[in-house]
Design a protein that fits this description.
Elements: H1 3-10, E1 28-31, E2 34-41, E3 43-44, E4 47-48, H2 59-80, E5 88-99, H3 107-122, E6 129-135, E7 144-152
Parallel strand pairs: 5-6
Antiparallel strand pairs: 1-2, 2-7, 3-4, 5-7
Helix pairs in contact: 2-3
């Protein structure tokens, strides 16, 4: 069991099976030592986490939704590494999209749900560059969508 798998177990997190694409794209692309992971939407064992942050969800609920996106990202990275988290070197960059009202300005605090989770699981290897962007709407009305770039060996 890798250190990542052990840490996820300590946190009580079970990675889902890496979701298949919902349209005409692939879940990840490997170029050299980088894995580009397509956007992962906010969902948990009960289904999609939907709604506008700042209207239907508060910042804490939005951050919890972002955390589920990070779990999806790790599931895709594990699939890209043929199940071997020991190949993961670091998180390079996240781009987070928050389905939010026009007057909502706390997108960084929402995307922190993903960033904090990745640092909690990966330590310094989880520290990354990042963008947190407001979106007037996201697919299927999900609250958050996050894409990521990861370095592997």
């Amino acid at each position: 069991m890798s250190n990542v798998d052990s840490r996820l177990a300590e946190l009580g997190v079970t990675l889902p099976t890496a979701p298949a694409p919902a349209a005409n794209y692939v879940p990840f692309v490997i170029v050299g030592d980088l894995v580009f992971v397509s956007g992962q939407i906010s969902m948990n064992e009960n289904g999609l986490i939907t709604g506008k942050v700042g209207v239907d969800l508060d910042v804490a609920a939005g951050a919890a939704a972002a955390r589920t996106c990070a779990i999806g990202l790790l599931a895709q990275v594990k699939a890209a590494c043929d199940g071997d988290f020991d190949r993961l070197v670091r998180v390079v960059k996240l781009t987070g999209f928050v389905n939010s009202s026009p007057d909502f300005t706390d997108q960084p605090e929402v995307v922190n749900g993903a960033s904090d989770f990745l640092v909690d699981v990966l330590g310094d290897a989880g520290r990354h560059s990042r963008s947190a962007v407001s979106a007037g709407a996201l697919p299927r009305d999900v609250a958050v969508e996050i894409e990521g770039i990861f370095q592997i060996r």
